[in-house]
Amino acid sequence: MNGEAALVSLRSIVKGYRRGQQTVPVLTGITFDIMAGEFLALMGPSGSGKSTLLNLIAGIDRPDSGQLIVAGEDIGQLGEADLADWRARHVGFIFQFYNLMPVLSALENVELPLLLKDMSRAERRERAELALSMVSLADRMAHLPSELSGGQQQRVAIARALITDPTLIVADEPTGDLDRESAKDVLHLMQRLNDEIGKTIIMVTHDSRAAEHAHAIMHLEKGELSGREEVRK
Amino acid sequence: MLLSLIFRNAFRHKLRTLLTIVGLTVAVLAFGLLSTVVEAWYAGAEGASNARLIVRNSISLVFPMPLTYRQKIRQIDGVKAISTANWFGGVYKEPKNYFPQFAVEASTYLDLYPEYVLSDSERKAFMRDRKGALVGEKLAATYGFRLGDTVTLKGTIFPGQWEFVVRGIYSGRDAKTDVSQFFFHWEYLNETMKIRTPRRANQIGVYVVEVADPSRVAEISLAIDSAFRNSNAETLTETEKAFQLGFVSMTEAIVVAIRLVSYLVIFIILAVMANTMAMTVRERTAEYATLKALGFGPLFLRMLIYGEALAIAGLGGALGIALTYPVADAFGKAMGTLFPVFIVSDLTVGMQLACALLVGIVSAVFPARRAARVNIVDGLRSMA
Ligand SMILES: Nc1ncnc2c1ncn2[C@@H]1O[C@H](COP(=O)(O)OP(=O)(O)O)[C@@H](O)[C@H]1O
Ligand SMILES: [Mg+2]
Ligand 1: which residues within 6 Å by Cβ? Predict the structure, then answer.
C-alpha cells in the first residue's frame, strides 16, 4: 500500500428518496476518502443517512449524482450484473440482524458466497471450516441459526463476510441487536480482522463505545459529513 | 447445496407445504380418474376393428333389416365372412344392472371375434344348447354367474321373461377387449318371436361383415349399400370402429363436461399453489435481498423458486399418480360392467405428470420474477 490511492473515494455524492411527488434529500454532497486498511466508524443520529451512505459504498444502491470509486472501479457506472460480480469479489457484508439463511447450518451459511466462485466442494468446505474456527465456532458448524445466540449468529455472519477475502467489509449496526458482552466479542473480532489481516472495515453505529474500536470516526449530520475524529493509531 | 437449499426451503412451513402437496395429490388423482373415465368411454371403439364392417338400417339402429340380406351381402366381392347380431336390451332383476346383451348367429359370430377367448369344451356346450349363453368374465364376476347357472332376463324390446343357461365364460385377448357382454342364440330369439309375434320374426339388427382386405373397406361398404338402394330397408355400412365412435359421440357433451371439470380441478390447484408460492416469496424478501447483496444474480433466485415449486408439485404429482392405479382399480370394480374396460393408460399418467409440472412452473412465474427483481436496499429494510 503506498497510501496515496484511496480504496474508497467519494466525490460530491448526492442521494435522495422519492416520497410521492417530491424528493427527500438524504445525502447532499459527500466528499471523502477511505484508505486501504482503515477501520472507520460512521456515526450520526438516526435517519441521518448512515445506512444510505454505507449502501452506496457497498454497491447495493446508486447515487443520484457524484462519483463513487471503490476498489479501483467507478461503481456508479456498472450495470446490474457487473455490480453483482463486483460485490461478490470486493465486499463482505455484516448486517444488524445477521441475515443468515435460516435453513442452512452455520457451516453452509459461511460456505454460501463461495458458490459464486469456481471452487470444488471439498475446497469450499475446507475454507468455510477454517473461517468458522477463526470466529471460534468450530464446534457449532452443524447448528442452524435458530440454534445459536445472537452473538454467535453475528460471528457466523462475520465468517461469511470474510470467506471470499473481500477488499472491503461493511457493517451496518453490527452490534445493534446484541447484548453488551456479545457486542464486545463481535467488536474485538472485527478489530482483529483489521489489525491482523488488514481488512478495511466501514462500520455504521450509533454506539460511541462501539466506535472506539475504529481508527477514526466520521460524523454524519443532516446529509453532510461534519468532520473526522481520530480514535487510535 | 443449491438442491438442499431448495428442498429445505420447500419444507420450512411443514403444514403449509403438506397441505399443498395433499391438494396437488388429490387434484392429480381426480384428473387421472376423470381421464380414465373418458378413455373408458371410448374403449369400445378402441377395441373395435377396422377390418370388420357393421351393416345397419340407414334410418336408424332401432329398425331391423330382413334376414334375406344375409345371402346378398355374403355374395358381394371382398366379403370373407358374415354374422348377425340383435340388440336385446333385457333387464336382469333391476334396471340398474345394466350390461349389453346380443342375440347372435352363434355358428359364425365367434369366428369373426377372435378376441373373445373361450375353451373348446365351453364353446361346444354353448353351441349345443339352444338356450345357452356366453358371458364375459367381468360380467360373470360382477353378478356371480357360473357355468350351468340359469339367468332370466326381462325383455323390453322383446317382451316376456327369457331364460338362459350360462354355457361359456369368455376372457379377452387383451385389456381392450370388452368382457362384460352377454351373447345368446339368435335362433332362440327368432323361434320364440315366430310364435309370439310372427311379424317380428326373421329380422336382423346388424350384420357383421369381415372383409378379406382391410384396405378395401370403403369400396366394399359402398357396394353393400348400393345393393340395397331403393329397397324398403336401405343400409348404412361403416367400419366397426366408426360405428362404435358414432355411438359414444351421442354423449360427447358429457365427455366434454368431464374433461372440463378435470382441467378445472387442475386450474384450482394451480391458483392455490400460486398463492402459496407468492406468500412464501413475500415472507423471504429479506433473504432474497441478502443473497443479491452477496452477489447472487436474478437467475439464481429464479432457480431457487422454480426449484421449490417444482419440488412441491413433483411430489404431489408423483403421489397422485401412484394413488391413481389402486383408486382406479377400486373405482372400476365399483362401476361394475358400466365401463367394460377401465385401465389407467400411459397417456393419462403422462398428462398427470405434465399437469403437475405445469402447475409447478406456472405457479412460480410471478413469485420468481418478484424475487429476481427485489430491490436490495428495500428488501433489507423490510427486515428491520
Ligand atoms: N428506501 C427508502 N425510501 C424512502 N426513504 C428512505 C429510504 N431509505 C432511507 N430513507 C430515508 O432516508 C433517511 C436516511 O435513512 P438511513 O440511511 O437509513 O438513516 P440511518 O441509517 O442514518 O438511520 C431517513 O429519513 C429514511 O427515512
Ligand atoms: Mg441505518
Answer: A 17, 26, 44, 46-52; B 377-378
